[in-house]
Each structure stands twice: as structure tokens, then as C-alpha cells.
Amino acid sequence: MDGIKKDYVFHRDLKKEYPIITHGVGVYLIDENGKKYLDACSGAVAANLGHGIISIGESMAEQAKKAAFVHTMRFETKALHELAETIGKMAPIHLNKVYFTTGGSEANESALKLARQFHRDAGRPQKHIVIGRWQSYHGNTIGSLSAGGDVKRRHAYTPNLLNYAHVYSPYCHRCPYDRQKNDCLSKQNWTCVTDIEKTILELGPENVSAFIAEPIVGSQQGAVPPPPGYFEKVRELCDRYEIVLIIDEVMTGFGRTGTNFATEQIGIEPDIITFGKGVSAGYAPLAGMIVHDRLIDGLIQNSDGKFIHGYTYSGHPVAVAAGLAALEVYEQEMVLENVKKQGPYLVNRLLELKQKHSYISDVRGKGLLIGIELVKDRKHDLLFDPSEKAAERLNGIAIELGAVFYPGSGAIDGTKGEHLIISPPLNVTNTEIDEIVRILDESFTIFKGLLRK
Ligand code: PLP
């Protein structure tokens, strides 16, 4: 077939050729031809400490040499205990037990199942429906895909998806409920909240098991934080109708937004926090969930302490060793301080770029999870047609120039929203941010020339 690659690798796109990366140094990846790429999105917002950290590699190698695998139905390791304790202590006060998986999709899948088991065993057997949000991404397994709202990824699998419900998340810059920001906030009558209650009542509260949301919407919308007070209202609804509140921190966890978890900034205590990516800074497939004492007590009282679930690689010793070593580096490099300093610096530099390029209509985010919304013409609020693949093309130009970003499009219904996430490693310097902005600036100029042709 035309353009199909002739090698053995089955990637997402069988027609695409990608550079072969030989190694990485700090924020840079280097390919076999010696070309450098500034990793301005930490891969998939995962390589949060950059590349080539020897101490993490050595910890993994040492563990692999000692015991490469132990089955957590029979044995545990010291590193497993240490990492769970470290994460438990970073989390909100009543979230103490940590369950490990290999990826964020599995973490969310586990959280959805735990919510269901918790209700079933507590004598609420009907509770099984999950409410998610259209602008959220929670993963690619059937459960997590059903809970999320990635329309393009859901489309092919529609008959396989679970019958979960969805609401829109707040996006005051371009409200999906067509409310005016000032009117909405001053009246405190937020459609994005009343719609949740309406949905619960329509489904019947006795049927709803969990509500799942990202604290700051990542890949589906490009780093959109909620208006202050939104999650307090969500928490109230979940309490009122006995619904497990799952906050997906797979992208936001471990300092990305300037605090250990973004949950600290949204002012609530969830029932479950899921995490991934940053926990090992991308050095090993590691993710999981941190669970509220209330759910653990329920499991002990009603289920003899048994969660009916499990994975072969849960708590894998080498992955756990990577996690422990990564969290040590976060501490040593005082990453949280750096995010608090570099986040505002990056935002200011992007706001300067906004003055120059009318393709940028919004700069938003928290810490070093920053997004820009791309439009065809800011003055007339003219959106790109999805077929123009604006974000993807802009990123393609940037890659040629030596920096890689995280493009996204098609939030809500596949017709709205083009954005770029800028999320460099959390130990990025001022000079590296300047380079990111310079390459983005040049990319916009080339992009403009291409659009005119
Ligand atoms: N949840 C969020 C918020 C994510 O951003 C992602 C991945 O991008 C996932 C879940 C899925 O994680 P994974 O790809 O590790 O399965």
C-alpha cells in the first residue's frame, strides 16, 4: 500500500516515519543524525525531569539486578512500601492508601471499579453509572475511554463503550453552555454545575457511582483551569448523592502545576486521586491511585479488605525504584520552587507572543502546564476548520526548527478548539524558556506564510 513503512513496528500511524532518538540530555532529545529537539512538552507531559538522569537509571538497574519481578499477590518489596508512603504523605490528609498500575488508563480503570465495588458492598448495588466530562481524557481502555470525552478516539468504538453520562466542563473563555462569563460568575448560577445535578437526577442518584474529572483539563482542551469554586460545588453534589469523586491527576500530579497535586489548588478532598506520568518522571511505566480512608474502611468492613481487581505488573519493583529515585530528584532540585518561578515567566513570554501573533486567542494554565488556544483570526474570533489541522501543522514546523510541543484539537464535538500545550520539564531554566518562545515565534511566522499560499 502507498506510503506504508516496511519495518516491523506497529505504531499508531503506519505511514509515518519518526526520527530515531539515541539519547537525551536535560531538556533535549537527540536523534541519530545529531539533531537536537527541545522537549517543550516533556514527551506526553511525562518526562518531568528531562533526560539522562544517572541516579534514576542506576536505581532501576540496581533493583533489576536484585529482583526483577515479584508477584504482589504473594510478596512485596521495601521500595514498594517506601514509595507508597512518600506518595501518601504528599496527598491530601485523608487519602493514604496507594494502589499501583503501569499507566494512567489502568489507574482510572481501577478507580472506576473501586467506586463500583465500594457501593455494591455497602448495599447500594444499583450504583454503576459514571459521569464524566466531554472535555476530559482519562485513557484508552474501554472503561476509561467511556468515562472520557475524546470524541475522535471514542468514535470507532461506540458500540463497545459503556453507557456512561457526560457533562461539559467549565471553559469560561468559550463557554460550551453559551453563558457570558461575568453574568455567570456574578449570579453564581453556573450551568456547568446545575447540569451535573440535572444529569444525576435524570439518571437517578441510586444509579450513579462516580464523577470523574481532571482538575485542569489537559489534552482535550489545552490546560484549562476551572473557575474558583467549581470543584467545591462538585464536591457538594457528590456528597449529597453519595457519588465517589475521582480526580484524575495523571497529567497534573507531582508538581506540574506548582503544587504536589493540583487538588491542593482546587480546594477539595477527592475520594480517589489517580496519577501517572510524572510519578517516575517518565523513566518507567508507573501510575496508580491514592484512596480516601472512607473507601478503604468500606473495603475492610464490607469486603474483607479485598479489592476484586489486579494487574501482573502492579507495583513492579523496577518501576517503583524509578518512582522513588525520581521523587528524590524532585526534592533535590527543588522543582516546586522552580515551577513557581518559571511558570509565570513562561506565561509572560507567551503573552508577549500573543501581542505579535493574532493566532493566539488565549494563554492559560497553572504552573508549567500552559496552553494557548489557536484561532485563525483573533480580532474576528474566527476558528480554524478542523481539516486545516492547525495545531498539528504548527507543531510540525516547530519540530523542524528544533522544539516539540503537545498539539490538540477537536474538544467537545470535533469542530471546536485548536490548542498547543507547552509543558517543559519542571527543572527548565529561563534561557531554555526563551529558546522555546523563540522557536514558537519563528514557527508562527512560517505558519503564516504557509496559510497565505
Ligand atoms: N488521564 C489523563 C489526564 C491523561 O492525560 C492521560 C494520558 O495522556 C491518561 C489519563 C492516560 O494515561 P496513559 O496514557 O498512561 O494510559
Summarize the structure.
With 453 residues, the chain is α/β, with parallel strands linked by helices. 39% of the residues lie in helices and 17% in strands. It has 15 helices and 15 strands.
Helix/strand structural class: alpha/beta
- Total individual domains: 2
The rounded distance between the terminal residues' Cα atoms is 30 Å
CATH superfamily membership of the largest domain: Type I PLP-dependent aspartate aminotransferase-like (Major domain)
**In CATH terms, what is the architecture of the largest domain?**
3-Layer(aba) Sandwich
Bound ligands, named by name, code or SMILES: pyridoxal-5'-phosphate
Number of strands: 15
Number of helical regions: 15
The 3D shape can be described as: globular
CATH class of the largest domain: Alpha Beta
The whole-angstrom Rg is 22 Å
- Biggest sheet strand order reads 4-10-9-8-7-5-6
Q: What's the rounded overall pLDDT mean?
A: 95
Unreliable residue stretches: none
Q: The CATH topology of the largest domain, please? A: Aspartate Aminotransferase, domain 2
Largest sheet: 7 strands, mixed
Secondary-structure element pattern, one letter each: EEEHHHEHEHHEHHEHEHEEHHHEEHEEEH
State the helicity in percent bands. Answer: 25-40%
What fraction of the residues are assigned to beta strands by DSSP?
15-25%
